[in-house]
Structures are given as structure tokens and as C-alpha cells.
Design brief:
The structure is a homodimer of 319-residue chains. Chain A is α/β, with parallel strands linked by helices and 319 residues long. Chain A folds into two domains: 201 residues, NAD(P)-binding Rossmann-like Domain (Rossmann fold), CATH 3.40.50; 81 residues, UDP-galactose 4-epimerase, domain 1 (Alpha-Beta Complex), CATH 3.90.25.10. Chain A has twelve helices and twelve strands. In chain A, strand 1, helix 1 and strand 2 form a beta-alpha-beta unit. The relative contact order of chain A is 0.13.
């Protein structure tokens, strides 16, 4: 049996594949597998005999029909056009984020094996007037095409699961901080940048007000939760297959205070504060805190505090 | 300028077209028009020089490109595969209800004229645990593919409107009672049947428990609200373009009591009560009452009581 990871060449996808290889056999409920297939526009960087790469377009049904075969135990669907690009290039976002998700669900359905299917969604599905702490039953009001496409994907996964076509689970990921590497086109890219660049001695700009509250998770916490998402018993989800993954709620000012505690005042001084309305409008429409009592009761976890998130990055990438 | 009505051959669509012809010029805010084009699988039955019919598939982009031209002032999108059929024939529902809606939005976008766009949605977008009175910001949890497809259509209309591609409004229609003619494949078809058949001297079955609470509207009230939906100033919607149209909240027992008051005890006695789980499971997942303070403040209206709904049918169709 195999596990398919779309977006397996990306930061999160390749990290998930490494975690599956290292810990998969020990996770209760995770289907037994002897192969992992990455589907992405680039090859997966993980070097392991059990990992193979299919390079191509996630929205291509013919490609998916070749990859998603009856021996598929589980699918992680992480591939997406990020928020900034989906807003700037509407058709590209619709094709990859909507058509791609649907094509993958159809391919999974066609196997007849109802594989487990974990869909990575986003807090960008929320928007408009919101209480300080977002309850699980708040209506979605996306303020970006990315958010709308993710909300549509959630509905598709839930309906395909209700019909028995897949054993679906939707994980709304917090903003993942700190991502290594270069800035990307996500509206949230700055949230990693204002930690990563100063720790590397480089300047970074914070385009949103310092009082902006964000819902964050370290890469390690998200990976732990993605592994758990596939392991949790579907019957315990009681037909509500969309979960707000636990995160920590911090303001940008809190983040910069952590940067200073971990990296020193000189690092903090490298952050400038030029407001960028295009970014702020999107990011400030996202909720900054959630009631996650149900996912916590289901065994999902979160980081202890933001200092530990900064140290996680420093120890792995800036050491 | 023209107005396009998809589903213009149907009961609601043809009734809307007659109302537009009779009252359109007098509705403040409604764009001036000299033609109405019906798009449906059958020709529109309305005989009027201003009405033309395009017979074809709503999900065919080439057909839509011919119909949806730059002189389109407004589009009513009523065409859909109903709930029972969408559940039984998954691919048909996805193609018509999802692909069709998206293709129509894309055709409207391609005109560059941002026409007004009224999308008929449904209370089938709701499901799962619900308060007795559903607030406007309750999360959607559809329990049918029809409901999921309508919820996806709502997200599309809102995003296309946010991007300025259309001037969109989503009307979640109550269950429309009393529909004339024959039963259809909608799970709610019985709600008209238990009034219509007895008033015509025929037996009818009620497949759900009598305490089932339903959210209902007469055809006349829905038509008034669809006309108002296109007339209301978009700025007053404050980015929340999805509206629960006002209805009245009655139990099936209330409906049968109205039938007896209007049609007599003999009519009431024609209704049998054989439970049908397939129907009950869908209908009982729908909410029976809504907080509609915002739509009422925006000028939408509703029936006075269910007796008047029964009399409306009797006077027009059973007289």
C-alpha cells in the first residue's frame, strides 16, 4: 500500500514525508504502507528508496488516474496555489485549488477503496465580523479567492466523505511559522520573514499593524497534527470532518518580543514597519484565536509558546 | 438590455418571467430591459414578444458565451438538479449545479459589464446540530450533495462579486409550497403534495413525522423577494451577499390543520402517514426557523400565515 502526498516537493510536504518515513509505522490507526508518492511540479527532495516523485499538474485527471490506484491507503492533499498568487491570478487559483482538489477526490473515488484523505485548508476561509475567539460553528466568509477555493474544497471533502467515496478529514492549518528559505507569494509570508531574516542578520519588513493577532503553529506541531489527522478514528468525528488545528494566538508585537528574547535586540532592530495595504487587508481579515476544545479532545496538539517556535527554527536552520 | 433567467421553463422561472414582464418597469433599482432570455432544457411557456428561449445545457460554456453578452443587465440563476436527483445521480448534480453555476459566472465575467447576478440557493446548505432559530452566521454543514453544491455556488457568487466580476446576490429560498402539477424528485416534494393532491380530491402520503418543522414560502412571496433581490442596493449588503429569504416556520401538523380549515376534513383525511426514511433523513436535516432580521430590514417580505399559502394555491390552481 502507498501514501500519496500532493505538494510533496514543498517545505511542509517534504517534512511530512520525512515524518511518515521516520514515525509512520508507530502511529496507531495509520494504514500500513511501503511506499510514498509525491505529486508536485518538482521532484520531492527526500532521498529514500520508498519515496518516488510524480512531476506534473495536480489538476490533470489523466496523471491522477495513473497515480491514485487501488493500493492507495491514504492521500495527503497539500498542493495549492498560495493566497497572494490566487488573488493576483484568479484562473490559476481556480484551476489548481478547486479543479485540482476535485480531480484528486474523483481519482480517489474511482479506486473504489475509499482511501483516507487529509485536506489541508486554511483560516483564510474566515472573514467579516468575528468574535474574538472563533467558535467551531461560525459561518465562512472568505475575503480572498484562496479562502473561497479552500472553503469549496472543504465542502467537497465533506460531501465525498458523506457519500463514502473517501474517508475524509479537513485540517485548517494555522499560519506556519517559521518557514525556512525565501519569502513566497502567500500574504502571510512576512510572519516567517520577520523572524527568519533577522536571525540570519538580514532586514525584514512587517507590513501589518503590531497589534494584529495571528493564529500560528510551528512546522513540527503541524506535522504532528497531520500525522494524527490520518490516525484518528473517523467515527469520532461525528460527521463534522473539518477541524481547526490547534495553534497559539499571539500578536505581531508578541512575535517581535520573542525574536528579541531569542535573537537579541540587534535582531529585533532589523525589522522595519512599512504598512502594505494589500497584505494587511488579507491578513487582518483572518481570525486570531479559535475555540479548539474539540480537536484538543480528539488528541491534536499545539506549541507551548512562541519563544519555543522561534527556538525550533533557530536550532534547526539558523544554528 | 436583457435579463437572463436560467430555469425559465420551470414553475418558478416562468412565474418570475411573468412577474418581470408585468412589474419590472415599476421596480426601483431594477435595470431597464426590453428582452428576457430563458435558458433551460425546455422552451419557456410564457408567450410574449419580449421573451425568447434558448434550449440547452446550462453547463455548456459555448452556449453560455452566445447568450450572456455585454447587453446583459441581470441574470437570475434558478436552474438546478433538485435534491433527490442530485443525491441519486452524483455526477449529474455536480455537472449542473456546480459546473453550470461556475460556467454562468465565468460567462458573466467575460462580458466585462459586471451584471447583477441573483443565485437561488437553498436551506439544504444547513445540517447537523442547529439552534431552534438559525442565526445568519451559522456554519454550513450540508447533509446532501445538493446542499453541498448550493453551498459551493454561494461561495463562488460571493467571490466573483468581491472581485467585481458580477454584482451578486444569493437568495436561500425557503421550501416553496404549494407547487402545482406533479410530484418531482426534490426531497421536499411531499410538502406541496400533501396540500395539492387532497385539494384535487387525490390521496397523498406524508413521509416525515408530523412534528417536523419546515421553513416555507408561497410562490408569490418568493417571486416578490426575487424581484426585490435584484433591486436592493449592493452597498447595503456590506459584503454579506448571502441572504436567508424570509419564510414562515410551521410544522407538518400545522400544514395539515390549514389544509383542513381551507379544504375541509375530507381533504385532510386523504393524507396517509407512511414514513420514508430516505426523505425524512434529508428533510429533517434542514432548519425549520431562521433569524431573518437583516433581510426584513433590507425590505424582503414573507407570507402572513400558512392558511393564506393554501388559499393562494386553491384560488389560482384548484378553483
Amino acid at each position: 500500500m502507498k501514501i500519496i502526498v500532493t505538494g510533496g516537493a514543498g517545505f511542509l510536504g517534504s517534512r511530512l514525508i520525512r515524518a511518515l518515513l521516520a514515525r509512520g509505522a508507530s502511529i496507531p490507526g495509520l494504514p500500513a504502507f511501503d511506499a510514498i508518492v509525491s505529486v508536485d511540479l518538482a521532484p520531492c527532495p527526500v532521498q529514500d528508496a520508498r519515496v518516488s516523485s510524480v512531476v506534473g499538474d495536480i489538476a490533470d485527471p489523466a496523471l491522477l488516474a495513473r497515480v491514485v490506484t487501488a493500493d492507495t491507503a491514504a492521500i495527503y492533499h497539500l498542493a495549492a496555489v498560495v493566497s497572494g498568487q490566487a488573488e493576483a491570478e484568479f484562473e490559476v487559483g481556480m484551476r489548481v485549488n478547486l479543479d485540482g482538489t476535485r480531480a484528486l477526490l474523483d481519482a480517489a473515488r474511482a479506486t473504489g477503496a475509499a482511501p483516507r484523505f487529509v485536506f489541508a485548508s486554511s483560516l483564510a476561509v474566515f472573514g467579516g465580523p468575528m468574535p474574538a475567539v472563533v467558535p467551531e460553528d461560525l459561518a465562512l466568509l472568505p475575503q480572498s479567492s484562496y479562502g473561497a477555493q479552500k472553503a469549496i474544497g472543504e465542502l467537497l471533502v465533506n460531501d465525498y466523505a458523506r457519500k463514502g467515496f473517501v474517508d475524509g478529514r479537513v485540517c485548517r492549518l494555522p499560519t506556519i511559522v517559521v518557514r525556512p528559505g525565501k519569502p513566497n507569494a502567500a500574504a502571510s509570508s512576512f510572519a516567517s520573514g520577520i523572524i527568519r531574516e533577522p536571525l540570519g542578520g538580514q532586514p525584514a519588513n512587517c507590513p501589518v499593524p503590531q497589534e494584529t493577532r495571528m493564529w500560528l503553529s510551528s512546522p513540527n506541531a503541524v506535522i504532528d497534527n497531520l500525522l494524527h489527522a490520518i490516525a484518528v478514528d473517523g467515527a469520532r468525528l461525528e460527521g463534522r470532518r473539518t477541524l481547526n488545528l490547534p495553534g497559539i494566538s499571539v500578536t505581531v508585537a508578541d512575535m517581535l518580543a520573542s525574536l528579541e528574547r531569542v535573537g537579541g535586540a540587534a535582531a529585533r532592530a532589523l525589522v522595519s514597519h512599512e504598512h502594505e495595504e494589500r497584505i494587511a487587508r488579507i491578513v487582518c481579515s483572518w481570525p486570531g484565536d479559535f475555540d479548539v476544545s474539540r480537536p484538543l479532545a480528539l488528541g491534536f496538539t499545539r506549541d507551548g509558546d512562541f519563544d519555543s517556535v522561534v527556538r525550533q527554527y533557530r536550532d534547526e536552520f539558523a544554528g
